[in-house]
Amino acid sequence: MYPVELTVNGQKYKVEVELKTNLLEVLRDKLGITSPKVGCNTGDCGACSVLLDGKLVKACLTNALSAQGKEVVTIEGIGRPGQLHPLQKAFHEHYAVQCGFCTPGMILAAKALLDRNPNPSCDEVKEALSGNLCRCTGYVKIIDAVMAAAKEMAGTETV
């Protein structure tokens, strides 16, 4: 077993992991944070997506030891109690959520995009979300929500 110290959603944790343990297992099994989902476990679906030091990663493919000393953000780490992040609000108001399984990963993929490009084109949104699969919505409402959140975050429109 190897010690790993990491910060998740602003809270510091120290866990013991085996060499083969991935970040998804740490989040779900050791810390009880279940918003990153176990989907394909091969990095294809994006349901486990989180931000690691601000970069979008697939937690199922990220070795837990590589998170040593880093900041992990899950869907719980954006917004504040009683105040949704503009992306969360837009997903709700644009009906971009159906079953909800992909939603945390989709929102974090969108956040990673908007953090580096606050005024994306529709094609840039599609590209940024391309690593996250949704079986319910058909993506149109998801893309609409991301575009609306970008406008709200830029102060040019409300969601």
Task: Describe this entry's structure for a reader.
It is globular, with a radius of gyration of 15 Å. It folds into two domains: 2-77, Beta-grasp domain (Ubiquitin-like (UB roll)); 86-154, [2Fe-2S]-binding domain (DNA polymerase, domain 1), CATH 1.10.150. Strands 2-1-5-3-4 form a five-stranded mixed sheet, with helices on both faces. The longest helix has 15 residues, at 140-154. The chain is built from five helices and five strands. It has helices at 23-30, 86-93, 103-116, 122-129, 140-154, and strands spanning 2-8, 11-17, 49-52, 55-58, 71-73. The model has no long low-confidence stretch (mean pLDDT 95). Helix 2 packs across helix 5 (140-154) and helix 3 packs across helix 4 (122-129). It is of the alpha+beta class and 159 residues long.
Keywords:
single chain, 159 residues, alpha+beta, Ubiquitin-like (UB roll), DNA polymerase, domain 1, five-stranded mixed beta sheet, 5 helices, 5 strands, 33% helix, globular
Q: What's the structural blueprint in terms of helices and strands?
A:
Elements: E1 2-8, E2 11-17, H1 23-30, E3 49-52, E4 55-58, E5 71-73, H2 86-93, H3 103-116, H4 122-129, H5 140-154
Parallel strand pairs: 1-5
Antiparallel strand pairs: 1-2, 3-4, 3-5
Helix pairs in contact: 2-5, 3-4
